[in-house]
Design a protein that fits this description.
The complex is a heterodimer of chains A (323) and B (540).
Chain A: H1 17-28, E1 50-55, H2 67-72, E2 80-84, E3 91-96, H3 110-127, E4 131-136, E5 145-149, H4 154-165, H5 179-182, E6 188-193, H6 200-215, E7 219-226, H7 228-235, E8 238-243, E9 253-256, H8 258-279, E10 288-290, H9 299-307, H10 311-317
Parallel strand pairs in A: 3-4, 3-6, 6-7, 7-10
Antiparallel strand pairs in A: 1-2, 4-5, 8-9
Chain B: H1 2-18, E1 23-26, H2 35-42, H3 54-79, E2 85-92, E3 100-101, E4 104-105, H4 106-121, E5 127-133, E6 137-144, H5 147-155, H6 166-174, E7 185-193, E8 209-212, E9 219-229, E10 236-246, E11 254-258, E12 264-268, E13 276-281, E14 287-294, E15 304-309, E16 316-319, H7 325-330, E17 333-334, E18 341-345, E19 355-358, E20 371-374, H8 386-391, E21 405-410, E22 415-420, E23 425-428, H9 438-455, E24 465-466, E25 478-479, H10 516-537
Parallel strand pairs in B: 2-5, 2-7, 7-8, 16-17, 16-18, 18-19, 19-23, 24-25
Antiparallel strand pairs in B: 3-4, 5-6, 9-10, 10-13, 11-12, 11-14, 14-15, 20-21, 21-22, 22-23
Helix pairs in contact in B: 1-3, 3-10, 4-5
Classes of the chains: A alpha/beta (323), B alpha/beta (540).
Chain lengths: 323, 540
């Protein structure tokens, strides 16, 4: 135990690959176009997937003329050519917040669930032919983004995630310089954090980056990890010497009462509201994963409940439907 | 002391309870606990009851152990300082410890063994009680606290011309060892001797050691001197010297006797029956005879002896019956005062002095007086012809004094011969009859059987005396022929080891042991564990 949170070994994702594959296939049978919300739009291009017929324009490849359809076309002088889907490689950038607050509570660290979410999404994306990159949200800019490429295995994903989990957060500085380069237009930026930033400036900077990403046609998802219900129960009531990340050596001694806890809860809400107010200008998804009010929460149970039921995650993993 | 310590503990408890107990809690939302919340609670002061946590019970255990230690400490202060652990060294200083082996005496070897034994194991706080034994067990010192002190006392010991009484050591070791405060607390006993360890040492308590310093060496020695005397006159007729060889039997063993006049005669010691031979001497004149045995061997106290053969003085008799000519005929002296024997009529009063009561005499006839019963084991019937007795015409005794028992009786309860054991007295039918024939011989046999039976208990001057604890020096006829001292060829056998010298509590004197240091140690250990658990749990 340290002031910055747990440094223990994080467990691998307790979901077998077969279950993830079944989940992926079930979602691939659905189209996200039928669901509200922001989503990735696939571009037209050359592939074997037929998209539409359109009138021939100068410069089109004569080999794509559909003579049979042109004969049935009501405009005799107009030829129709076949167009195909452009199967561009989708990109998902997963930013993980590795700060000390993410390593708590000890019984179910938020970083643990963040890594599990990253591993599951990376595995499903790789099975779907998309590329994934991991980004360390705090720390030095150099080396904050790690590519995984396509068709990766879970072991290779875990190897990369171990590097992310072990990344140093000193200096505790928001690292956003590499985000724009690692998430081209049309990509997805998935941020997993608890938003317990030490200073409001970091909140504002991240919110501004989210806005910019939206303007660059990027689908931004901020997974808000909220462990306060659990930690409130663990705190209890009475005389407490508070320890945790971000105190800078101070150890506030206080009498924890209901009023004090309400005050803390309000401050957390203010912090998150501040982010939301500044980031929603561009429109983004913010699913909230909430820890149960239990003194011994089960991390696997929390993950199962949110990963398989969260509509935003489902939408992210669905097939892009035709328009 | 106890009140002071109790007040100290109470103060600690008060301080502990009055002190706010802030439980350390780690939370990811720590940055949202601002100083304004802390300021609101910093001034809080109040009594907080101990929380029933694991740490609370551990701390309570520490307090209980401390409270238990306090009265224990008090008891120890009252009982005074603990006596040091001690060894009881019992050294054999009997005559056989003068036996020469390997160029030195066994006593010298015993002292060397003692020094080696103590030198290896001596630690601070030991003390030694030193005793010796031969025919008596004698304490020398019981407050020896250094090896040098022990060796100084042991070196000053010298063997005495006495025998060895192991039973004294056995009784001493088996007795509860009563220890007085500030004296040696006897935990181990070390017996150093030239005798093999007796069987009871195998079951002796651990810590008791028997060290046999002997090594088998050859020896030839006198082991016994017996004499044969005339019971009536006390004259020494023969003296037998028993000679025993321990180890090889020397072929040229001889006994040289120096007569009172200075004449010497040498006897060859033979024949040997096993390891023993007997030389018989007939001392023809009274006086002191000096006997020397050669070759002697490793032990010298049994190589020579002096005996004093007393002159045979006539028997002193108080003759109060008729026929006084018997005094001259027997060579007895008439001594009405201080007699060895009194001859009285049966009607005379019998006092505490030895006496023969003489009856009415014999009236031989051809008629038979059948014997009714007799005391078969009585020496008074030795060599008597019962057929003659039935025709001897013995008159029955009248009322005999108390203490007499019949030895020979006729029909109708007629007592013919009777005896009294203590003081010795005999009733006989009459004085010896003159003349030849079976009845006169019978009457003489009865009379002299009675005289011998009474006079055999007469104390005669011994030929020699043995040394004793009161007179341990062998001078003149006081010699040191104690049994088994000359047996120098025994196989040595030691028993026990000081390595097993664990503390042994005596049965009736259990020594109080200080328990409070263990309470303190346990409290300290639990306190360390409590602090460690507290550190892990984040509780101050």
């Amino acid at each position: 135990m340290t002031r910055t949170g747990a440094r223990g070994t994080l467990s691998p994702l307790p979901i077998p690959s077969t279950q993830l594959e079944r989940y992926r296939l079930s979602l691939r049978q659905q189209s996200r176009a039928q669901l509200p919300g922001a989503h990735l739009v696939r571009r037209r291009g050359q592939s074997l997937d037929f998209r539409e017929l359109r009138p021939y324009l100068l410069g089109d490849d004569i080999r794509h003329v559909d003579w049979r359809a042109s004969a049935r076309h009501h405009r005799r002088a107009e030829y129709l050519i076949r167009t195909f889907e452009h199967e561009a490689q989708a990109r998902i950038l997963i930013s993980i917040d590795p700060r000390g607050s993410m390593r708590l509570p000890e019984s179910a660290p938020k970083l643990q669930l963040a890594l599990w979410l990253a591993e599951a999404i990376a595995y499903i994306a790789a099975r779907s032919g998309d590329s994934v990159a991991f980004h360390t949200l705090f720390g030095p800019d150099t080396g904050s983004v790690v590519e995984t490429g396509r068709f990766v295995t879970r072991s290779s994903i875990r190897r990369v995630l171990r590097r992310v989990a072990a990344a140093t957060t000193v200096p505790s500085r928001l690292s956003l310089t590499s985000v724009a380069g690692a998430s081209p237009p049309g990509s997805v930026w998935l941020i997993v954090t608890d938003l317990y930033f030490e200073v409001d400036a970091d909140v504002d900077r991240l919110a501004a980056q989210v806005c910019n990403a939206q303007h660059g046609s990027r689908w931004t998802i901020v997974v808000d990890l909220d462990s306060w219900p659990c930690e409130e129960l663990l705190l209890g009531r009475g005389l407490r010497r508070i320890d945790g990340p971000g105190l800078g050596g101070r150890e506030p001694r206080l009498d924890v009462t209901n009023a004090a806890l309400e005050d803390v809860k309000e401050r957390i809400a203010v912090r998150k509201t501040r982010f939301h107010e500044r980031a929603r200008a561009g429109g983004y998804d913010r699913p909230c994963w909430t820890w149960p009010a239990s003194s011994k929460p089960a991390p696997a149970e929390i993950f199962h409940r949110h990963f398989f039921d969260d509509p935003t995650i489902k939408r992210l993993l669905m097939k892009d439907g035709s328009s | 002391m106890i009140y002071l310590f109790g007040a100290f503990i109470a103060t600690l408890v008060v301080v502990y309870m009055a002190r706010p107990n802030f439980r350390r809690t780690v939370t990811s939302a720590a940055i949202f606990f601002h100083d304004d919340l802390a300021a609101a609670s910093a001034s809080r002061f109040g009594w907080s009851p101990p929380r029933p946590t694991r740490l609370f019970y551990i701390q309570l255990a520490v307090l209980v152990l401390l409270l238990l230690a306090v009265p224990q400490c008090h008891v120890l202060l009252r009982s005074g300082p603990e006596s040091p652990l001690g060894i009881w060294v019992i050294v054999d200083r009997s005559a056989s410890m003068t036996t020469m082996q390997q160029g030195g005496t066994r006593m010298q070897r015993a002292v060397a063994q003692l020094e080696s034994l103590l030198g290896k194991r001596w630690t601070r706080g030991y003390c030694v009680k030193l005793s010796t034994f031969d025919l008596e067990l004698r304490d020398v010192r019981d407050d020896l606290h250094t090896v040098a002190d022990v060796m100084r006392e042991a070196t000053s010991l010298s063997p005495r011309a006495l025998g060895t009484n192991i039973a004294l050591v056995e009784r001493a070791l088996k007795q509860p060892r009563r220890n007085r405060p500030n004296e040696c607390r006897i935990d181990s006993a070390v017996v150093i001797t030239d005798m093999p360890a007796p069987p009871w040492m195998d079951t002796a308590p651990k810590g008791d050691v028997w060290i046999d310093v002997s090594q088998p060496v050859g020896n030839l020695g006198l082991t016994d001197i017996t004499d044969t005397r005339d019971q009536l006159t006390g004259k020494v007729e023969r003296v037998r010297f028993r000679v025993e060889a321990f180890g090889d039997i020397p072929r040229d063993a001889r006994l040289t006797v120096t007569w009172p006049g200075g004449a010497q005669k040498t006897f060859a010691v033979q024949p040997w029956v096993g390891p023993a031979a007997v030389v018989e001497l007939k001392p023809d004149v009274p006086g002191t005879y000096r006997i020397e045995l050669s070759p002697g061997g490793a032990y010298h106290y049994d190589d020579r002896a002096e005996i004093d053969v007393p002159a045979a003085e006539g028997l002193r008799v108080d003759w109060q019956v008729g026929q006084r000519d018997w005094l001259q005929r027997l060579g007895w002296k008439d001594a009405p005062r201080d007699p060895d024997l009194r001859v009285l009529p049966a009607s005379a009063l019998v006092d505490e002095r030895p006496a023969i009561l003489v009856g009415a005499g014999y009236a031989p006839s051809t008629s038979v007086q059948p014997i009714a019963d007799f005391l078969e084991s009585s020496a008074l019937l030795t060599a008597l012809n019962f057929d003659v007795a039935e025709r001897a015409g013995m008159h029955a005794a009248g009322a005999l004094p108390a203490g007499f028992e019949p030895v020979l009786r006729g029909r109708g309860g007629a007592v013919w011969i009777a005896q009294r054991q203590d003081p010795p007295a005999v009733y006989v039918p009459g004085l010896p009859l003159d003349g030849e024939g079976s009845v006169p011989r019978f009457s003489s046999t009865v009379f002299f059987n009675a005289a011998r039976w009474i006079l055999q208990r007469r104390p005669l001057p011994p030929l020699f005396t043995l040394t004793s604890p009161d007179q341990p020096e062998p001078i003149d006829t006081r010699i040191a022929l104690h049994p088994a001292e000359g047996n120098t060829a025994r196989t040595p056998r030691s028993a026990g080891s000081l390595d097993h010298g664990v503390s042994r509590a005596t049965t009736d004197d259990p020594r109080p042991r200080a328990v409070w240091p263990w309470f303190f140690a346990a409290a300290a250990a639990i306190f360390v564990v409590e602090r460690w658990l507290g550190l892990l749990a984040g509780v101050q």
